[in-house]
Automatic annotation (TrEMBL):
PROSITE patterns for the chain: ABC_TRANSPORTER_1 (PS00211), ABC_TRANSPORTER_2 (PS50893)
Location of the protein in the cell: Cell membrane
Domain ABC transporter: 5-256
GO molecular function: ATP binding
UniProt key word Magnesium: no
Coiled-coil portions: none
Protein name: ABC transporter ATP-binding protein
Keywords: ATP-binding, Cell membrane, Membrane, Nucleotide-binding, Transport
Membrane topology: Peripheral membrane protein
Signal peptide annotation: none
Length: 328
């Protein structure tokens, strides 16, 4: 079966005084119908640019896709006109950002904002659109939706606003939702509620989700598959269990060890990976992780590892995957 989204060798970035500056480096990923893929990584790893490039919102941020394909139901979005992208973004794909306030218009009632999108993309009439908007507010767990629909964003809490944004994203029944750090700006209790909501929507509506997060706990809770990004590239990809229970790439191992309590262990000393992420435009020769890797070998300094199907079932961009399995 065909994947809903298939990204192939996506290199995207920004034109600067010093020429083209890459933010993603030949990123490939795929999302099946009804699945949730989480891209995890530290800030600056290229996660957000990947999502902006998929949506072609990167064009508005002064960037562009340099090479590669973004196949949405087999249709390549990389070369589309913005006019066509606007139609696709409104109806087939929707995006949820970190800050709900920036996604909402302060001068319109929240119900009106959802209704407007339904009139534009679904060609609903006034009354029908309003009724559906109220219904969507109910779906995302907003109490007294008939009353709330008449409120303005500033009359609502951050968590309620993010629910409105999710309602707006869902209103036109998109097949893919891209959420970039959707809970990061919210306090911990509200974060958990929004995650529960996303998990519920995924179960009930079978929407595919691409979730971008730096938070491994968030990823563990909602993802089917995980892609770990480092310095613009995906360095490990597999199911949640494969990647979190049995990480293959030394970077993933370090990342997981630096998170408190993910494995239920408390009080364990936190690990930090030595060094920092290199600039994607000034990578070391060979493996991009080699300056920081505790297992670096000769080959790592010369040859760049592709994503190799490895011992634990997932794929990892690491030459260790080609060594014979321990004890075998
Ligand atoms: Fe470390 Fe080598 Fe694997 Fe890179 S390829 S992560 S340097 S062992
Ligand atoms: Mg980001």
């Amino acid at each position: 079966t065909q994947n809903l989204l298939e990204v192939r060798n996506l290199t995207a970035g920004f034109e600067t005084e010093n020429g083209f500056v890459k933010a993603t480096d030949r990123v490939s990923l795929s999302i099946a119908q009804g699945q949730t893929l989480c891209i995890v990584g530290e800030s600056g790893s290229g996660k957000s640019v990947t999502s902006l490039a998929i949506m072609r919102l990167i064009d508005y941020a002064g960037g562009f896709i340099e090479s590669g394909e973004v196949l949405f139901k087999g249709d390549n979005l990389a070369g589309k006109k913005q006019q066509d992208m606007m139609r696709i973004r409104g109806s087939k794909m929707a995006m949820i950002f970190q800050d709900p306030m920036s996604a909402l218009n302060p001068v319109f009632k929240v119900g009106e904002q959802i209704a407007e999108s339904l009139r534009t993309h679904k060609k609903l009439g006034e009354k029908e659109a309003w009724a559906k908007a109220v219904d969507m507010l109910r779906v995302v767990g907003i109490p007294s939706p008939e009353i709330r629909a008449h409120q303005y964003p500033h009359e609502m809490s951050g968590g309620m606003c993010q629910r409105v944004v999710i309602a707006m994203a869902l209103a036109c029944e998109p097949e893919l939702i891209i959420a970039d750090e959707p809970t990061t700006a919210l306090d911990v209790t509200v974060q958990a509620q929004i995650l529960d909501l996303l998990a519920k929507l995924k179960r009930e509506l079978k929407t595919s989700i691409l979730l971008i997060t730096h938070d491994m706990g968030v990823a563990a809770e909602i993802a089917d598959r995980i892609a770990v990004m480092y310095a613009g590239a995906i360095v490990e990809e597999g199911t949640v269990d494969q990647v979190f229970q049995n990480p293959s790439h030394p970077y993933t191992v370090g990342l997981l060890r630096s998170i408190p309590g993910l494995d239920g262990e408390r009080g364990a000393e936190l690990y930090t990976i030595k060094g920092s992420i290199p600039s994607i435009n000034d990578l070391p020769t060979g493996c991009r992780f080699n300056p920081r890797c505790p297992y670096v070998m000769d080959r790592c300094l010369r040859e760049e590892p592709p994503l190799i199907p490895g011992k634990n079932g997932q794929r990892a961009a690491c030459w260790l995957e080609e060594l014979p399995k321990e004890g075998a």
